[in-house]
Write a structure and sequence with these properties.
Structural class: alpha/beta
Number of strands: 13
Largest sheet: 6 strands, mixed
Radius of gyration: 32 Å
Strand order of the largest sheet: 6-7-8-3-9-10
Number of helices: 24
Strand content: 5-15%
């Protein structure tokens, strides 16, 4: 029995869950070749006149590095920017698909993108909670599906082992890859895309991954994947092979017919040679043909034109023409709009729970933040311990203490720059795959990361430093002080969030966040008297977090406070100093600073969310 009949028999057993047939016709895809100082460089075509049909089973896209195999996979899967597709279309079961295919199919990226602080089971359950409709699947059913996938993927022994981070040793590379596949299998997709699933794995692990995919394909699923140069035990499990070279197809058809095709072109495979290695030698020009013009040194460049004139290619094009004629005659089914299976509030609950869990399991970002604030609070309290009420020491010490506190509140939140950069790949993959909305991810960072990681440590810091420094003893004044420090801190975090959502490089983020902080410090009113600054520069004080924070701190401390001079011991009202600084210490005079800080926070957060939505999700 031929392999085609064997595959057909195996797939017939699972006809009720048969995967779709993917067709693509005359694909021409280009990218902008970026040049220094040029916004748009010349176009470079990475796919040239590519056509093919991929049916249920194992569909391999093979080729050397730079051949265009991953680009073809991404175009078929709807993961490439559609603006680059100059010609051609991709159909799934005769239906024109758009970006919604990303939500209805499964895509496993080459680099395993998983939350390292979560265990294998927790990652799978996270996918199940967000990608299975809670109205149709109970929590018990989700648990059962996760258990079944763990067993099918051979992850039972490491189910409760964390994936691993740079600080935490976790599962092996093969187990990570199987977990990544399991995350996508949660929805029982009939169409599965994988980008080089064996890269970085040893030969035995790679073989087990391909065997797993082979078993899935025998259940009726359409498995499409790119692969570089597999060993024979892997290669023989393929059903359909698409061989790429420099963006063009040099062979597309059944795997068992590939050798005969190249033999007819005059190529001869050596005894005991791996067919996959042989095909790479052919496309790279290292194997010579006995037929002209293939015996030239650059004979492999004729492979693509020769295939386009071959019978296998004509057969594919004829079938594609029938599909196109069916579309022209109106048999095309309307594209189904795929929505999120879970509600906004449900996504918030699940994503916030994971964010909190990740925070608790990252001591360097949670417990260390609290410990650092306690340390600085004690340090500041010791330096400015019980500041006297005698001038000029009272004024000098309080001014220095407030400036030091504001600097600590602002620059102490530089770690927030890492927030979106570190999880950028996870966010792009999960958001593109339909796990959750962008707004859910952003709000989860605010509720589950910002408040416990920024607000609570600031209140602890304020309570220690305030009473050690001997500031105004009124409890109301302390609450205003703690509020002011919190708003200053959140304003710094808001600007850090904006920068973090705008760039993907931590080095660039550090530069972009340091410059405005330094300018804000200069125009804060402590290092220079803003009342005597040039008018065309003085307006920058309205953008300074330091300006509003210092003004509120001075008003809160000096208003209603009585000071004394060292010489006469006579009383001096604190309002006298505020008048000298030309500060409005009325009720609104104080609160306008806090409102301004809230405005900075709001504006920065809104723009951070906008930047998060603008992140390029196309590969």
């Amino acid at each position: 029995m031929s392999k085609d009949k064997e595959v057909a028999c195996e797939l017939q057993e699972h006809a009720q869950e048969r995967g779709p047939t993917v067709t693509f016709h005359r694909l021409h895809y280009s990218v902008q070749d970026s040049r220094f100082c040029l916004r748009n460089g010349p176009e470079k075509y990475i796919l040239k006149d590519v056509s093919g049909i991929m049916r249920p089973g194992m569909n391999a896209i093979m080729g050397a590095t730079g051949s265009g195999k991953t680009s073809l996979l991404d175009v078929i899967a709807g993961r490439k920017d559609p603006r680059g597709l100059k010609e051609g279309q991709v159909l799934v079961d005769g239906r024109v698909v758009t970006s919604e295919l990303r939500l209805s199919s499964a895509y496993v990226v080459q680099d395993d993108i998983l939350m390292g602080t979560l265990s294998v089971r927790e990652n799978l359950l996270f996918s199940a909670n967000l990608r299975l409709d809670p109205r149709q699947h109970t929590d018990k059913e989700k648990q059962s599906r996760v258990d079944a996938i763990i067993q099918d993927l051979g992850l039972t022994d490491c189910a409760y082992t964390k994936i691993g981070t740079e600080f935490l040793r976790g599962v092996s590379g093969g187990e990570r890859k199987r977990c990544s596949i399991g995350m996508e299998l949660i929805t029982s997709p009939s169409l599965l895309f994988l980008d080089e699933p064996t890269t970085g794995l040893d030969s035995n692990t790679a073989n087990s991954i391909i065997s797993l995919l082979h078993n899935l394909s025998r259940r009726g699923k359409t498995v499409i994947f790119s692969i570089h140069q597999p060993r024979y035990s892997i290669f023989r499990q393929f059903d359909h092979l698409t061989l790429m070279h420099k963006g063009e197809v040099v062979y597309a058809g059944a795997v068992e017919r590939a050798l005969d095709y190249f033999t007819d072109l005059g190529y001869q495979i050596e005894a005991f040679n791996n067919p996959a290695d042989f095909f790479m030698d052919v496309t790279n020009g290292e194997a010579k043909s006995a037929l002209a013009p293939f015996n030239t040194e650059e004979g492999h460049t004729f492979l693509a034109p020769t295939f386009r004139q071959s019978q296998p290619c004509r057969t594919v094009l004829e079938e594609l023409e029938r599909v196109d004629s069916g579309l022209a005659s109106g048999s095309k089914r309307p594209d189904k709009i795929v929505n999120y299976p879970t509600s906004f509030l449900y996504q918030m609950r699940v994503v916030c729970a994971r964010t909190l869990l990740n925070l608790l399991r990252n001591p360097q970002t949670s417990y260390a933040q609290l410990a650092l604030n306690i340390f600085f609070a004690v340090l500041v309290g010791l330096i400015y311990f019980q500041m006297p009420l005698y001038m000029p020491q009272a004024l000098q010490n309080r001014g220095g203490a407030f400036f030091f506190l504001i600097i600590n509140m602002v620059f102490g939140n530089l770690s927030a720059v890492e927030l979106f950069i570190n999880e950028r790949a996870i966010f792009i993959h999960e958001n593109s795959s339909g796990y959750y909305r962008t707004s859910v991810y952003f709000l989860s960072k605010i509720f589950a990361d910002l408040f416990p990681n920024r607000i609570i440590p600031i209140f602890v810091f304020s309570a220690i430093a305030y009473y050690m420094m001997g500031l105004k003893p009124d409890f109301e004044a302390f609450l205003c002080f703690a509020l002011n420090m919190s708003l200053v801190s959140l304003a710094g975090v808001g600007l850090a969030f904006l920068v973090s959502a705008s760039v993907s490089s931590f080095a660039m983020a550090n530069i972009l966040i340091a410059l405005p902080f330094v300018f804000m410090m200069v125009f804060g009113g402590f290092l220079v008297d803003l009342n005597y600054m040039l008018n065309w520069l003085a307006w920058l004080k309205w953008l300074s977090i330091f300006n509003y924070g210092l003004n509120a701190a001075f008003i809160n401390e000096f208003q209603g406070q009585i000071f004394y001079t060292n010489s006469t011991g006579g009383p001096i009202k604190g309002e006298t100093f505020l008048d000298l600084k030309q500060l409005d210490y009325s009720t609104w005079g104080y609160w306008q600073n806090e409102v301004a800080l809230m405005g900075i926070i709001l504006v920065c957060m809104v723009f951070a969310y906008v930047q998060l939505r603008r992140i390029n999700r196309w590969k």
